Amino acid sequence: RLVRLFEIVRVGGSRMGGSSSGLGAFKAALHLRGIIDCPVTALPQIPLDDDETRRIGKLLEDAGLL
């Protein structure tokens, strides 16, 4: 289950670096679960878009975490 869930770090694809994608994904997941109030990452990180955030939500649902 954890290996499949780790796919969240790749939702940013090639439009952003691994740090932006990974950090953004973890913050988005925490936000979707209600653990943090704001998923915004600090500059110079590139933010995830709405579609990428929805994909993270789907991965969380599939893992039984939403």
TrEMBL record:
Record-linked InterPro entries:
Aldolase_TIM
Q: Classify the source by domain of life.
A: Bacteria
Name assigned to this protein = Dihydrodipicolinate synthase family protein
